[in-house]
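Case 160 in the screening queue. Each case pairs one protein sequence with one candidate compound; here the compound is zinc ion. For every case the pipeline is the same: read the inputs, emit a complex structure as C-alpha cells, and attach any notable structural observations.

Predict complex for case 160.
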Amino acid sequence: MMLDETIPHATAPNAQQGPRSAWAALKRGLRGRCPACGEGRILRSYLTVNCSCSLCGEEFYHHRADDFPPYITIFVVGHILGALMFAVDDVWPDLPIAFHYVTWPLLCILLSLWLLPIFKGGLIAYQWALRMHGFETAHAAPAASECLDQPKAIPQQSAA
Ligand SMILES: [Zn+2]
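Case 160 output:
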C-alpha cells in the first residue's frame, strides 16, 4: 500500500472517486478529525461516533470499529505499564508497596481513558481510507436508523 500525504477528494460529494491515503487518514483520525476534510469531528462525545462530518458531510456510520479500539488500548497500555513497572522496580527497589498499589492502577485507568477515543478515531479513519464496510458506497447507501434523526450536512452551493 502506498502511503502518501495527499487525499485528492477532500470534499464529500465526490468522495467515491480517487485513491485515499491510509497514512493521512490515520493521522487525521488519531486527532479525532474527519478523514476526508481533516476538520470535522469523528466523535460527538467520548466514544459516540457522529453519523457524518458536520463540515463536509462525509458519512461515518458505516464504521465497524467494534472491539478493536479497546483491544489496541489494552495492548498498548499493557506494554507501557509492564515496562514501566519493571523499570521503576529496577531503579527504585525499595519503594513502599503503597506506591505500587496506587500508581499502577491509576496510571492504567487514566492512560486507557485517554487512548481509547484516539484509537477509535484512528481505526474509523483507517476503515474509511480502505473503503471497508460501507465506506466505499457511503453516499449511495441509506442512513442507519440511529443516524436518521441527525441533520445531514448541507453541501455549500454558489450564490449565482
Ligand atoms: Zn469532513
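Case 160 observations:
- The CA atoms of residues 31 and 94 lie 40 Å apart.
- Helices lie at 22-30, 68-91, 97-129.
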